[in-house]
Each structure stands twice: as structure tokens, then as C-alpha cells.
Amino acid sequence: MLNFLLGLFSSDLAIDLGTANTLIYAKGKGIILREPSIVAINSGNKKVIAVGREAKEMLGRTPGTIAAIRPMKDGVIANFEVTEAMIRYFIQKVHNRKKLLRPIVMIAVPSGITQVEKRAVRDSALSAGAREVYLIEEPMAAAIGAGLPINEPSGNMILDIGGGTTEVAVISMSGIVYSKSVRVAGDEMDEALVNFVKRKYNLLIGERTAEDIKITLGSAYQLKETKTMQVKGRDLILGIPKIITITDEEVREALSETINIIVEAVKVALERTPPELAADIVDKGIVLAGGGSMIAGLDTRLREESGLPITIAENPLCSVVLGAGRVIDNFDEMKKVTFK
Predict the structure, then answer these.
(1) Distances (CA, A) of 93 to 24, 89, 250
(2) What homologous superfamily is domain 2-140+320-337 in, according to CATH?
(3) Distance between CA 129 and CA 143 in Å, rounded?
(4) Got the DSSP string for 77-119?
(5) Cβ neighbourhood burial of 307 (10 Å; 0-12, 13-18, 19+)
């Protein structure tokens, strides 16, 4: 009875606890929060100074007493205490003054997650104020969010490229038939750009600059027109600030290894798919979701490599949280796609 009453007054939440961004969906309301998964803490007393967007502004710009931390790495918790503080902050932010009410929380996790990592996610959400915690695998949530008919006895393939992990899965009859999670995604692309610029131009750039380059010039296939961008950083030889101009071709070269790993994961998934479901995928193709799927020309590259139709989800950045949210909205009928 108490749970029923709490349910009436609290707003149940679906959380996409991403390496790069955290998105929250409130039951019946839609997406109500989207913030970077970053926490700024005081190095001395370990007190949280800022969370989310405000903390991201501090990345690479903090004095020695303040550390801007990404508590998630490769889609899983790297720093338990900071993750708990971040989840608590976000839950309190969306619940406003209703701090006494404890919501049911659904959290999307990578499909390759271990039992220890599952427990860390569950415990951090419970400590942050959740009443009950359910988990849903990211590719399943992304498929639901992209509008795929997951209940039907036919094969649906989803490729979800996030910040920390790339998930490829084949789904049929509300279950995952095959899934592969590779811990190579948007963050590795940023890292590859930092290393490329350092190696080629002796210029040190920050991760925010690398992310800007990726969004502006990143591509997986030859563009129709050459694009360039001015990049600011610190000259490693002279030690002074310097500006260089970088082209889309150079960025494509820097990202090629990461993109090859993603393409290879799709090929392996296709090889491992049962023949009947593979026949369905030939007709339906592959659906792309996640921020990484927005890299220019990735759909063209995958189409060439696989020979299959490629579709990008209507809202790739929000597919996972929209799918988890749809499960929260229709919990009784969709509960079977979750686990505790």
C-alpha cells in the first residue's frame, strides 16, 4: 500500500547514464533533463562544487584545488561516490522540492556489463534516493526509442554509438538474440584527435576542443566539399598558444581506426546472426542510434561495407532514454525487457 501511495506522488524516472551525457525521462512528461556526465569537486574536502553543464565549463580550466571528473568510463561507473553524488543531484533537480518522495528508477546499461558493474549502478541509484531500480540494456532501449517492432518474431538490428561504448544487437520477440558491446565510441574518437594533432602539429588540445573538431569536421566517408576549421592549443615545442587550420581529410584519417572497429563489430554481428533473422535484416537493414551515429558519412560507409539499407533513428541522441521512458510509461506490459 505504501509503495502504491508513493507511486501516486512521485514521478518515476528513466535514466540514460551515459559516459558523455546523462538524460532523464519522467513518466508521463518526457525528457526533462540533459546534462554532461561531469562533476566538479574540491580536491581537499571532496565537496561537490558543480554538476553537469556548469562542471563541463570548468573542464581543463580549474585551479589545482578543483577537479572536474567524469565518473563514468566506457559506459560503466569508474568512480562510485562521485556517480552517486551526480545521480542524487540530477534526481533532486528534476524532483524539485519533492525530496521526500522516492521514485522508481530505470537505468540503461551497456549489454556487456558485468554483475559487479550492475550492482554498482543499482547501489548508486538506491543510495541517491531511488525506491526501486530496474535495469534495461542500452541496445534494447535504443531499439524501442527508435520505434523498432521489438515484440514481433522478426530480426531487428540496432547499432548504438554512445560516448563510452558502441552496442550492436539483434532483437526479436522482446529479447536480445545477439549483442556485442565494444568499449570504443565517441570518447575514443576525441582521444584519437588529441593524439593526431599532438603527433602531426606538436599542438596540445583539450578534450572539449577535440569534441568540437569531431562534431564540426568528423566524417567516415569522403565529403563532397572540403571543410576546414581553426584549432587553438599550446605549442609543445615553444610552450606558447598557437592556432592551426585542420581539414576534414585529416580528421577522417585520425578517426579511421575507431570507425574501423565499429564497422568490424557490425560485420561480426551479421556473421553471428541466425539465418532466419539475417533474412529479415536484409529487408529491414540496420538502424543507427546514439551521438556517434551522427558522424557524417557513417551511414554511407556502413551501407557500402554491409550491402544493407542503413537508417538513422529520428532522434539518435535521445533514443536510449526515450526507449527506457516508454518502458516506464507502459511498465506492466513492457516489464519483461528489464531486469533487477
Answers:
(1) 11, 6, 41
(2) ATPase, nucleotide binding domain (3.30.420.40)
(3) 28
(4) ES-HHHHHHHHHHHHHHHHTT-TT---EEEEEE-TT--HHHHH
(5) exposed
The CA-based angle 154-159-165, given to 5 degrees, is 135
Give dist(CA 139, CA 121) in Å, integer: 17
Burial 50-61 (b: 16+ CB within 10 A, else e): bbbeebbebbee
**What distance in Å separates the CA atoms of residue 150 and residue 63, rounded to the nearest whole number?**
49
Architecture of domain 153-184+256-315: 2-Layer Sandwich (3.30)
C-alpha cell at 264: 568490424
50: nearest Cα among 66, 64, 63, 65: 66
pLDDT in tens, 291-306: 999 999 999 999 999 9
Q: Is the pLDDT of residue 237 over 50?
A: yes
- Tell me if the pTM is above 0.70: yes
Q: What is d(CA 151, CA 153) in angstroms, rounded to the nearest whole number? A: 7
Strand partners, 33: 24
27 three-state secondary structure: coil
